Amino acid sequence: MKEVLLVEAPDGFVVQGMVVETSSTGVWSEHMGQQCKETFTFLDDDIARFLEEGHARRTTPSAR
Length: 64
Fold this sequence. Notes:
flat
């Protein structure tokens, strides 16, 4: 994602940026694509859940 815009909203955050969508046809498709804008809204509850899940992953011993 390029040209990222992060805005704080009353109930969370809005993230917007430009992404390149590639076509899966043809040999040269990895070099071709078109830019489009994507917008994500993260509510305060989402942010709290992300923090809790990240903390749980860091403190739980991984199975090796």
